[in-house]
Amino acid sequence: MEKGKKKNLIWKVLFALCLAGVVISAVILIRDVARSRQQEQLLESLAAMTEDGQDSSGPSGPESEPAPVTETPEPERTWEELSLEEKNRKLEETFGIEIPEKEVNFEELQEQVNPDIYAWLYIPDSTIDFPVLQHAEDNSYYLNYNIDGSKGRPGCIYTENTNAKDFTDHNTVIYGHNMRNGTMFAGLHKFEDADYFAENPYIYIYTPDEVFVYRIFGAYEFSNIHLLAGYETETEEGFGEYLEEVKAVRSMNSNFNPDVEVTEKDRILTLSTCVSGKADRRWLVQGVLLRADEAADETDASSGGAEEQDEN
To answer: What is the pTM of this model?
Structure first.
């Protein structure tokens, strides 16, 4: 009889321990989900802050006859000397595109949110609308930490310190989690659809001094090789060899635009995320930088300006 009671007590203790484990696991899961959603809401609120601002110039005074203006020719300026508005206008005129306006206050973001924010990534008609961060020392930091410094998902959209922050590398790679709820870089998988790929051709990167516009040329599944360490893309020769491998990609869900030319002299942007159920694969969306500065240099050269064109 005593033996039976003892056995019964053991089973009750085990049941209590199991129940406690289930409760603790549920609490941890709920906490993690709540924390993840909190971070997603923070990113959403930051994105909302970048929407077009209203005209704050106030009401104008009584109209008066404008004074006659004597036009004087402006001295020629380099691309670097142009204002952000002038650069955008040249991009729009050169390539016939309209750059979406975003009011990104980088100084405020760096001071009040995170000092590692240095750019903003945006793809129209998608959920891709995020600040881009880079940690000075730990390249995997924002894979595991959120924008407010807390640990966990969803992490951040980030680059490694292998890439320059001025987007002058042959290949700038931006990483982000493929979240199951469709947030972060999960939206990149929409480019698996051929119609969506064709209807959404541009990626926009906003910085304090310039807006970089990339024409998407490919969206495809690739190996999980580290693109910056696994390929020698710092030289034109090495970058050209890498591009040949990209052009040889063939898969069921890949999409490429044959009308977009990419050469070893170009700069490209790679958006990289996971493929569900395939730990050894990555999903990449890539665009080539549209260079209005080079177009301006060619115009100057053809009109009797510089004898040598910029090859950067």
So the answer is: 0.79
